[in-house]
Amino acid sequence: SYDIYQEDSRIHSVPASETTAKLTGLRPGTVYTFTVRARDASDKSSADSNTLDLTTESAPGAPASTAPTGLRTEVGKEGADFTLDLSWDQPETGGAIPA
Known about the structure:
Blueprint lengths: L1 E5 L2 E6 L16 E8 L13 E4 L13 E10 L2 E9 L10
């Protein structure tokens, strides 16, 4: 079977014959992080899949998000040191964050 995790909590399972799941009850304007693990008949689990981070759309009429979007990363190496370059897009709030 497959277990779907939100952060560290198992929230859903599907039989081994399925490779999709529909999650309901998500809230608008909320950040979610999901992973999937395979589980065998003796209840042993695999390592986590890659991580899926997503943000649901804001509710109609909600103020624009002040959070930066489109976070991207690039891993590099300079000599013996590993580096991580982060970049992101500005929020569309005209430069002001309301109180």
